[in-house]
Amino acid sequence: MGKRKGPKYEQIIEAAVDVIAENGYYNSQVSKIAKRAGVADGTIYLYFANKEDVLISVFEEKMGQFITNIKDELTSRLSVEEKLHSLVANHFRQLSLSRNLAIVTQLELRQSSSHLRKQINDILKEYLLIMDGLIEEGKATGVFSDDLNEKLARQMIFGTIDEVVTTWIMNEYRYDLNELAAPVASMLLQGFGANVRAKQ
């Protein structure tokens, strides 16, 4: 059975992002989230089973929007190079627009239980499939080396983007995250390029 959605559900999701970012997941009681959302404590339980369910739902909702936005940008008219740049740029832009969401996704979700991490990984699969498609297209068109290890390439794309955002947060947003999109995409493209070979 799917969750009940509606304005209050959205209010709770947005409140949860802010409360978890400000207090940390373990110090974010349901009562704090309810107060920030402007609803009674019991209202939370009409939409979510418990606090863990709130955290997973935050990631599910926000990652769903995230993936939709990226898919909308990655049209068939774009070259592989443009698609990779667009993916990196979109990732950085969406998190730079919501620093609290960046804190939740980069820091708070990493401290969760193995059970929670498994659910998070399941939600991430659709995003990783987008990267897989991009890598396959790059190899098929000769933009990427034909012997490129696809699983390792995907780890490099996601891992690089992820680490750059985390470092930006840990440096207290002292620089413009969006300005790093072009150099990050360029470095990945050079690393995957058909004319680039690792030394034996």
From TrEMBL:
One of its GO terms (molecular function) is DNA binding. Residues 29-48 bind DNA. Pfam families: TetR_C_4, TetR_N. Residues 6-66 form the HTH tetR-type domain. Keywords: DNA-binding. The keyword Ion transport does not apply. This is TetR family transcriptional regulator. It comes from Sinobaca qinghaiensis.
